[in-house]
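Troubleshooting: if your tokenizer reports a length mismatch, compare your output against this known-good record of 348 residues.
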Amino acid sequence: MKTTRRSLLALSAAALTVARAHARWPDAQDSRDAGAAHRGPAAIASGNGLAAAKLAFARASGGTDPLDAVVAGVTLVEDDPKDTSVGLGGLPNEAGVVQLDASVMHGPTHRAGAVAALEGIQNPAQVALLVLKRTRHVMLVGDGAKRFALAQGFREVNLLTDESRRAWMAWKAKQNPLDNWLDPEQQLETQGAIEVPYSTGTVHCSAVDTKGDLGAVTSTSGLSWKIPGRVGDSPIVGAGMYLDNAVGSAGATGLGEAVIQVCGSFSVVRAMEDGMEPTEACLAVLKRIAERTRRPYLLDASGKPNFQVVFYALRKDGAYGSASLLPGGTYAVHTAAASEVRASVSLF
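Known-good structure output:
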């Protein structure tokens, strides 16, 4: 059967019809959670960022600028070698090189800083912060970002831990049964098969202080086993992170390409400006992603997206929320009354 543009569009429309039939499409009442009623200082983070949210809240409540506060919080996650989605120990690209991305935004001045494909520097969020503070630029990439970091006094380190290196070698060995690499279970001396991890993980953190000023940061080691030089949504202002001090802030984790193509975090903030509660705003943008996902390899048998995206939103008055494309998304929140990881409302 000959494939034409018309037939592809018809297939995409049919897949979307099936997806809508299976989707929850939560209404406004369903999407309201405890965060919608909260007012006052708060810090929200991705599910792996509870420690980041706690520190960001403490710093911002103590008078530290909210951007400095959230960067300090995210640094805890970047420094944790057990979190293979961020900083030290992050899973590498297909060449075995860890490339890090980060972006930051400062509410009171509406300034941003970002770095992408940064190698050998453990804390990309701190480097992005200095791009904001010490240059006229917004983004530095690759070797230029590394040279800038070294000039600012950052120390070059090997970001590939033994755990992430073993995972990379296991991934290489399993690529093709006809290649010259033996799978771990085929080797003479082996500890058994090594499970190959896969990560689209990231850490995001936003905070609002007692004056209603906001700071936001997103940091990641990116898609595991990516093509060298691939950059996802995390360092792109308006995609993986965005902030408007008159409205609120938002961040994203998950498949970065999907977030970039709908200007994800910018769209969440704009939805809040239009009057949506934070979780409702996240759901609205996730619905847009679902409706615009048409490539067959990104859809499951029922026509739903087969990848995850999670949005996090914090409004200027302290209301907060989160939503995920598929079940399983989580977010961390720290306020004067609560400090916990919660389940995100899922679109499907």
